[in-house]
Amino acid sequence: MQAPKEQSKKEHCPAETTLAMMSGRWKLLIWRELFSQVKRFNELQRSLTGITQKMLTQHLREMEADGLVNRKVYAEIPPKVEYSLTPKGESLQPLIEQMHIWGIEFQHTQE
After folding, report:
1. Which of 2, 6, 29, 103 falls between 20 and 30 A from 22, CA-CA?
2. Does the pLDDT at position 5 exceed 90?
3. DSSP string, 30-96
4. According to CATH, what is the number of the domain 24-109?
């Protein structure tokens, strides 16, 4: 006898869900930039030394699909696009700040 679908699905840890939203080499740095203010694509790219246009686009699309980033397109020529955090994206700020503090403390213990 087969188990119902609900029971056959693997239970996911909530922390795993959070990590999946944050996964990607550049996402934390994108958040850091957007915590301070709304930014245009080129502003983000300039502030993230080493990121390619393709990678920035990919991460922003993923974050938008996850409901973490707003993308606002203005009807003008040339097109103007601004990125900002949604309330859900902003809600990660305390968690990211704590990760930052933990990282500093960890680095000091390694010296």
Report:
1. 6
2. no
3. HHHHHHH--EEHHHHHHHSTT--HHHHHHHHHHHHHTTSEEEEEESSSS-EEEEEE-HHHHTTHHHH
4. 1.10.10.10
